[in-house]
Specification:
The structure is a single chain. This protein is mostly helical. It is built from twelve helices and nine strands. It is 45% helix and 9% strand. The chain has a three-stranded antiparallel sheet. The chain is globular. 25% of the residues are buried. The mean pLDDT is 89.
């Protein structure tokens, strides 16, 4: 049955999840309307219970983004989803365009869209499961955010920036960052998969060389063995060596995870745990770019993201004439059109 109260603690028990073992604290107390709060609670609980959405998705893409609507609804005196009209949706879109982040910067276009999609998902779910709690007429036009997919985003790393990155790696002292980037360049795996990579991921190839295997957490399936370059194998061996003495102190579920470290400061100082996405792909990437003065064509610091290594590998393979179906298999996409 649905938990009582406004604060739920739900542990992710899915062993194929990159958040396995993590406790998610769902706090619904920020929703002022009891009627809307009940709907949101029901939406979260039912989607979690039947497995339609993962806990992390419900937490980061639904409950968190709904906060934008709560502020809007409270200011407008909206206390029920049933009273919403197309005019309210237009006003909400206008509100999102004026929103500022905690850093006093305008809310990004994709975040605006995500906030509206969150509300839309809840209303669509209610139309099936709680029809009496939402409007009987259509309130979304479907073209509130029409420009997000109009331009194909070619977000690979330019050759000159790749050269700067590789030159900087030669003197990089952080082994996790240094060897992690080499693994990302070689495999095109997602950052969440890298941080959950196992120490037994490398296997000898039946003919020659080595293959690498990992769990693709987004698709909840294991990646087929993939031939891998010697520098990637060496990078993984180095990380196994670096983390060997830490394994006895790690949680049982993390003992065979490659990317474990001793937390130097903040929450969990001194403990051994898996490196977080924020630490690796935000803090370390930012410092790496600025310390090594890696610039783009405009002379600005290059905005490096972990996913760009994935796009760069696919682009490089395509430019060399690799069959698109092979690229699909390497990157683990469900369809070659992606």
């Amino acid at each position: 049955s649905r938990p009582d109260g406004d604060v739920w603690n739900i542990v992710d028990n899915d062993k194929d999840s990159q958040h396995y073992g993590r406790n998610f604290k769902f706090d619904f107390s920020y929703i002022s309307s009891e009627e809307i709060k009940d709907v949101v609670k029901d939406y979260v609980w039912q989607n979690y219970r039947v497995g339609n959405k993962t806990i992390s998705t419900l937490y980061t893409k639904d409950l968190m983004y709904f906060k934008f609507f709560e502020v809007f609804a409270k200011a407008r005196g909206i206390k029920t989803l049933k009273s919403l009209s197309n005019t309210d949706i237009d006003n909400y879109v206008s509100y999102l365009r004026t929103c500022l982040t905690s850093r006093n910067k305008p809310l990004k276009y994709n975040s605006q869209k995500a906030a509206l999609d969150c509300l839309k998902n809840i209303v669509r779910w209610c139309q099936i499961h709680r029809p009496n709690d939402v409007p009987a007429t259509e309130i979304f036009t479907g073209n509130e955010y029409i420009g997000v997919n109009r331009k194909l985003k070619i977000d690979f790393i330019p050759d000159d920036v790749v050269a700067q990155i590789n030159e900087a790696l030669k003197k990089e002292e952080n082994p996790y960052l240094k060897y992690g980037i080499i693994i990302l360049q070689s495999t095109g795996m997602r950052i969440g998969d890298l941080l959950k990579l196992r120490i037994d991921c490398i296997k000898p190839h039946l003919i020659s060389g080595y293959t690498i295997e990992w769990t693709q957490h987004k698709g909840r399936k294991d990646k087929a063995p993939m031939p891998v370059r010697s520098e990637c194998v060496a990078a993984i061996e180095k990380l196994i060596e670096v983390t060997a003495e830490l394994r006895s102190e790690a949680d049982e579920k993390d003992k065979d995870t490659l990317m474990i470290w001793r937390v130097p400061q903040g929450r969990g100082t001194g403990s051994v745990s898996v490196i977080t996405t924020q630490t690796f792909s935000q803090n370390w990437f930012r410092d790496f770019i600025e310390y090594n003065n890696i610039k783009d064509a405009n002379g600005d610091y290059y905005n490096l993201t972990s996913h760009q290594f994935r796009r760069t590998l696919g682009t490089d393979m395509l430019s060399k004439g690799t069959n698109i179906n092979v690229i699909q298999q390497v990157l683990g996409h469900s369809d070659p059109s992606v």
